[in-house]
Prior knowledge:
Number of helices: 18
Strand content: 5-15%
Radius of gyration: 29 Å
Structural class: alpha+beta
Strand order of the largest sheet: 10-7-12-11
Distance between the termini: 40 Å
Largest sheet: 4 strands, antiparallel
Amino acid sequence: MKKKFTGILLCLLMTFAFVLSGCDLFPRNMSAYLNKSVCTITYENGDVEDITTKEYINAFNSYGYSLVQNGSEYEDAANQTIEVLVNRYVLLHYATTNNLVTVDQDDEKEILDDVYTSLESNLDTYIDEVRNDWDITAPGTPDSDSDDKKVVYTPYVPKAEVDYETYRIKLLDTEDEPQTTNFQNLDAVLEKFTSDAMEDDKTQNTLVRKEAYRRFISALKANEEGLGLSTDNASVLKRYAEDVYKTTRENFIITGLEDYYKTDDGYSTITVKQVLNRYKALMLQSKFSYEANAENYDKAMLESFDDVYYVVDDNYFFVSNLLVMFDDEVVGPDGLTQKGRYDNLETEYNNGYITYGEYQRRATQLAYQVVAKERDSKGNIIEGKTISIETLLKNLQEELALQTTDEGKAKVFNDYLYRYGEDTGVENADYPYVIGTETSKMVESFTDASRKLNDEGVFGAISGIVPSEYGAHIIIYLGKVENLFTISDVSTFNLVDKDIEKLTETKLNPLNNKTVFDKIFEQLSEDNYSIFENMNLNVLKNKCKIVKHESVYMDL
Length: 556
């Protein structure tokens, strides 16, 4: 199994999470208590495992505490934490004793890479702390409100495709790119980490890093206080790294167990019929729900379209937009920024000092003064590279006119959107904006311009420059909101294998590449494994003798 471990399941509690907060998890002078058992698991084959107080404390601080913060009583949070730990132990025992997941040499390297990344991540926390204490701004760190954040199109990576010869779902390789640094063993990880941390070329950055390393090691020592362990830096760091390695490797195995049960000789255990049945059920659910409640229907269409699978009328349509925001930093001769001028104009209109026509005329004039910053293919702003909104519109119109297909028009607009746009609501969004012919959640000028495009009904048509309180918009029309299949008679409605083609060919958003099939498959993949995991855990746990020692963990 050559798959980069990138995340953790709910049951995968990181035993090294305490260092992230830089605070102690272990009560002082309790070394004897840390090895007490909070739960004993006796497996069907006679193996016995104890969950220790130390493991429980770590798990509670990374999981149970969040439950308390959200209103749970300590007793409930404690028992849920124990349950998560039991699930973890049982799954690991099941996977390892049955050799269901193998960890080969390449996997070991990936795990070691993750250990190094974890160490660096912990050190970064202390680097931030040191910079804050020393009042140093991190180099190359943009202000949170800066326009310099990256904006880049990230195509969806399909996880499966339909084999039309057999009508089975084939799983696709979604592995991460190979790591540039592969360690041979844990000692190599520690050597590089320590070497990088302690390098000293007398620059401010290395001084900060050395101090962060000192604080990191101090925190590790504090968490081992009273345990009677060696206190030299190398030993303390190695014990911590061994814990990280153990947990990361276990997480890798449990993730591999999930993959094991999702795969059948390269094909998914999910069938085409399951995908079609799920989509059919969602369509019927939407139809019954929204035909019975027009208000909920309109709200869902405009606010949460992701949950709509059947539309009951043709009163809604899709649009997207390229937004270039008003400048809110450069002050003009009048002492105002572009945003300030627009705000003043809006105040005049709202107070009745000018007519709507005058307001629109002057707002449009302001919008035409907007200048867009250009970004490179990596989403970074190109210094000194700007273009007026008027020229941008002209260039976009010319390129769109050369396209003869809807797909070509969508691609051109998408390229412009990520090169110049600033609307975070459309960046890599599953769906475009939805506008109603009678209702809308968008600002008036945006809605009016969108409805004019809908009246014309030409896919890929764009508006002129549309002003709003945010800046200047160029809106693109992306078609009516329509059903993939029509339900004329609920009692006879059904989907057959060949209907899967429509799901695989229909994009959620014409500007992106994720399809309806991708969305439904993801839902089934998550739900099916959750169902399996719960059923499998129940079966496995019923074969175990699980004894919780509440008197130990309830007294903490």
